[in-house]
Amino acid sequence: MLRLLVLATLSLLVFRHIADYGAYDVLLFGILLGLILLLEVLLTTKRLGSAQLWLFLVSIVAIYFVSLLKNGLGVGTLFLPLALACLGIALQLNRDPQFYKAIWLMMVVVFAYHAVSILYFDMNPDDVVYGSKNHISTFYLSMTAAGYALLARKSRRLPLAPAVLCLVGCLLGQGSAGSVAGLVLFSGALYAILLSRFPMQRFTLLLIAVPVVVLVLSIGLVDYSNALQSYLWNQGYSLEIMKRLDLPRILGEDVRFEIWVSYIDRLDTRGLLLGFPFGAEFGFHENLHSSYLLLHQRGGVFSLLIFGFLIFILFELWKHSLVVFFCFLALIVRAAGDTVFYGVGVFDWVLILCAVSVINPSVSESRTAMK
What we know:
This protein has helices at residues 2-18, 23-44, 51-71, 79-95, 99-120, 134-151, 161-172, 176-197, 202-234, 239-244, 247-253, 255-265, 269-274, 291-299, 303-320, 322-337, 348-359. It is an all-alpha fold. Helix 3 packs antiparallel against helix 15 (303-320) and helix 15 (303-320) crosses helix 17. The longest helix is centred in the middle third of the chain and has 33 residues, at 202-234.
């Protein structure tokens, strides 16, 4: 019964990801189920977990109340309930690695929907997902990372196919930051899987891999971008799509850089400690296009605790599973380029799952088995 509840919660969040109709109600119902899952963990687990997890919870609560002081109850009120619901989902998934099958099955089904809609019916990526196309790549990165985090606990031989599907899905989203994050995940997974198949020192393989990756990024991707733009032009695709694939233009003119510089320029002592109210404009934009700046805007100095937590998890994952390490790194890269995590979107549970898989293994020791 509990497994069905977990699957129902995941299905709701995936549905909310792709559907515009009734999205807010679906989100609220998903949060409610996530809170029920968290309550079940609290009632049946002998020991909730490590000091790092408790520090994470304290940080989330502090950020929430700092946000309330600045913004009142009018905006951002779902941040804490969503975070706790995501914690409940992650802790439940951490109990049973077999959930990776359902997660990757959902990813394949959504990929089929995206591929048919975008490639066959020529739909705009913004129209096949709730919100903006930025969440398309976030979906594939998150579901791939969740599957690997669970499967890595029971097997050392991990498949490359999910990483390939993730990269193709990120490219379908036609976003620059998502495509870069997809490449990070795919390249990292390929490196880690090759290392597991052909044992050698990690440093030795890195010496071989890094120059190749740098060469591809500096030369190959620009050539690929130009060739793909030429093909899309001949096929009659819109100029907007081709602009998204113009890497030299993206790196030189992206509005994100103007927004980030404006945010940093406005930081004074109060702004650094407490952040800024929602609705403030930076470079004439309210959207900061960075989950980290949004988290700082929300919680001020307390957001630094979350940043430290993420860095700590990266080091822990490097020691436990290289594939999950690169998945987590790709999620961090993705969060830097758009507001898609930390209270925005529905995939924060993946970040928490990657974390608890290495710092909180005792959560799987409960007095009642999942039935």
